[in-house]
Amino acid sequence: MRTAAIENLLPAYKWMREYRFQDFPGDLTAGIITAILLVPQAMAYSILAGLPPEVGLYASIAPPILYALFGSSRALAVGPVAVASLMVASALGTIAVPKSPDYIASALILAVLTGIFLIFMGVAKLGFLANFLSHPVMSGFTSAAAIVIAFSQLNHLLGLNIPRGSRIDEAVLYVFSHPGDANLTTVTVSAAGLILLLFLRWYLNPLLDRFGLHSGVGNALVKAGPMFVVILMTFLSAKMLWNETAGLVVVGDIPAGLPPLTIPAFDVGVWTHLSASAALIALVSFVESVAIARVLASRRRQKIDVNQELVGLGVANIGAAFTGGSPVCGGFSRSVVNFSAGANTQLAAIFTAILIALSVLFFTPLFYYLPQAVLAAIIIIAVLGLVDLKALRVNWLYSKSDAAAWIVTFAVVMVEGIELGIVAGILVSIVLFLWRSSQPHIAVVGRVGGSEHFRNVKRHKVQTCPHVLAIRVDESLFFANTRSFENYVLSAVVDQPEVKHVVFICSAINAIDGSALESLEQLVSDLRSASVTFHLAEVKGPVMDRLEKTDFLEHLKPGNVFLSTHDAFVALDCT
Amino acid sequence: MRTAAIENLLPAYKWMREYRFQDFPGDLTAGIITAILLVPQAMAYSILAGLPPEVGLYASIAPPILYALFGSSRALAVGPVAVASLMVASALGTIAVPKSPDYIASALILAVLTGIFLIFMGVAKLGFLANFLSHPVMSGFTSAAAIVIAFSQLNHLLGLNIPRGSRIDEAVLYVFSHPGDANLTTVTVSAAGLILLLFLRWYLNPLLDRFGLHSGVGNALVKAGPMFVVILMTFLSAKMLWNETAGLVVVGDIPAGLPPLTIPAFDVGVWTHLSASAALIALVSFVESVAIARVLASRRRQKIDVNQELVGLGVANIGAAFTGGSPVCGGFSRSVVNFSAGANTQLAAIFTAILIALSVLFFTPLFYYLPQAVLAAIIIIAVLGLVDLKALRVNWLYSKSDAAAWIVTFAVVMVEGIELGIVAGILVSIVLFLWRSSQPHIAVVGRVGGSEHFRNVKRHKVQTCPHVLAIRVDESLFFANTRSFENYVLSAVVDQPEVKHVVFICSAINAIDGSALESLEQLVSDLRSASVTFHLAEVKGPVMDRLEKTDFLEHLKPGNVFLSTHDAFVALDCT
After folding, report:
1. What is the CATH number of domain B442-571?
2. In this complex, do B437 and A437 lie within 8 Å of one another by their Cβ atoms?
């Protein structure tokens, strides 16, 4: 009992208590490999968010440790990710200049707000809201965001100065209208970086296989690819002093030392202004993280707890805000790396955080000559895999309304920006959903042969009587579909003037809400004034219990409640 | 075929073509009685909307005639109504001074916008959106609106000058802090009016019954009550010249003559500003009108067509905008009066409109001395019946979430105003709805005795096998509930490590949308990596047809699709 109470507060207590020594090597290896992947990614995504590179590193220290303590997934690797970084840039772009103190301070506020939203959703059990960020919306959103992110790297890749906030078409136009402005060294470094990264990703593994290297080692080497490219290009850039001789932009000074203690400034205006953005970041972070966590947990028959995930991610974000970091969430590629490198528990994440803390303490001078073009190349390779046109194709073939949600989300992100895009996607999903929900499946049924089975008159050869109309609704009745049902019944009664009895077959009705109950009462009266009696049949136990609490059954008279449709047909002289 | 085409464009063609001479007396009587009820109501609601009284009369001429031609209900009486008038006052209150030319011009714009929204909803078949204005929300909304309306009449009832835009508490405070300001004559006239109206409503019918008067005649006399009070009090007021001697506010000059042709001014700013209000007025008008039309139609086994109703109401509102009127919709009391007085077709409404046109042409001078206090009393008596605490009580007993929607709507209307109130109500409904939709009813089933029947393990004594988990979902799978289903299955598999096969019983699944399909694919992979095979059973024909279009069944292997749960249990060695 006490253990359960502690686990409720601190889910990590469970894996700590159950920790087995044989889990240790896996956790250590995974921690190291993930750190090697994370260092360049953290800096790259930080620059993408318009922040100095150290902010991303800070966000990779305290937040994953806090997530390790409060989250429910054993393999999720938390830190800065591409899409959330783009959302940060989009949220802060209008209120301050990137990398300025104001901008950095606002990023802290965004992180604390994101954390508050996540924890609130967790405590209020609002995790279900994430259901309405449907697959097609998330897919259209990340696909478009990936393209926006890729184009946002044109400046770094080509050494240009495309004005901040340019749309993709404006950026492309700028590139073509300033052909001479590109920096040749930068373009060369970018091209070399991209080619190397692609080579490592596509060809290294088969190559190593051919040389008979164990594929686990091969995988680890592939995942370390970005770090390898970073080291190689930084070495070259430092050796040749390209930043001085050839105008290559390098990362420059990164302050050494552990993350500072930062307190997000409280300013009602800024908090209000950023709250909508923070809510969207929270929603997207949550959906992404849970999707990853669930996939990884199921592979080992482990569970995740959605509301605990919200709390874990929320605490991680608040931790980020107080240690100079930007909003964080679970990253797909790094979680998979962590998992496949053998992470058994969140101890792996703690090792990663320690390694990143050590880098920040001792190794930041080594990154001085790291070309930003290389980070841009890493970002581009990382996000290209997010463009998911297959989902569009599959949805198009299978469900046009899902494809519509994908297209709307994608198009609005491209044209109006990512925040409006996700809002548009959610709205389209909800409207389509409301539309579908308002159309319950309704069937008129008749008797099959001489049996006691009753089936849809449209699909089966059945016997019916002109004075009895038996209607089955294949969904619970509630306010969204009750008017359709009313309309259907009234309209059917008008079309068949000889009908004297309507039998409403409730075999598929799991619940009747207050609106639907009122509608039913109205329907009973309306039918009575048209000399038609309304009956119920096959009412489920729990539904009947609730109906008995009201005066509906009184009101139904002379209509009856029949145990079965067969009983109803017999009683109404339809045999 | 030609007839059908004409009827599509002009639904009135149907009743005109089928018109029988025996319908005429009923239509004529109903037309006259409704006109007698409508004249004072139209003026009163117009004043409530902050408009001069003639605007309400104008809105009772062209709009009902247009509705008669384009609407689908045979008994709906269209014109200015109390709640919509309050919404007009609330929408225009911030942009102009009541009764000023700007205010009247804005009312025309509001009417034309309301009409455009209604027609748009009709043409785009968006009538289903009205489902989300659920019963409890409408009930809470009209109850609160009725109370707001009643208190808004304090000025007219007491002859005070409570500042415009005061909240109810401020108005009450004003009354008590200005005890000497009330005008004694006004208070007397109000009290007399209220008492007379209540007497006529409650006691006239039983009294007439006792004198053996036919109850139809009695009903007609009761309905003419407001007109009788108007005539009596206007006569007294004119005779005594109370407006000059005792400071009683009277209606004053009403311009004689038919409605002017007015063209709503087009101003992007004003149109944009008013569009949200117009959308809400359109939604409320539509829901109210359809509810009334449906009740009346069902009593005579007639149909209404929801989308045609939208068009009819929309054309009526646009007609109002071009003939100097304010937004209109179907009024409950006057439609019931029209119906019970014998209206068979919309010819009754045309008679009403003609009579009102005649009043405007010839009788407006007679209304000069009509005390506004009498109109205020008429409003109060009319709206008191809208306060529906019974609905709150019933919902509270039956469904707490419906009661919550009622309370939220009511409270927000009272505290923040009617527009925010209805928006809050809709949001609460949708969130509750989303929440419910995201929790499908899921049952684990087992075999009943030695039979081929399978039932919920929680409710029946059934046989199961440890290595087979058979799960039935009692709703179609779509993006809102698919994650719950995934969670349920994954969690069940973790809790029962001996499970090797999951059988998903699709007997209640009418559709699987794109998101759910993706989820299922993911689930199949997740389970496979946990060495569990996923099978389907009892897949309905249409669902199977669509699945066969995708590569899902390929992906499912080695999982099978079984015809019945029994087949699945046999094949999986669970007998």
Report:
1. 3.30.750.24
2. yes
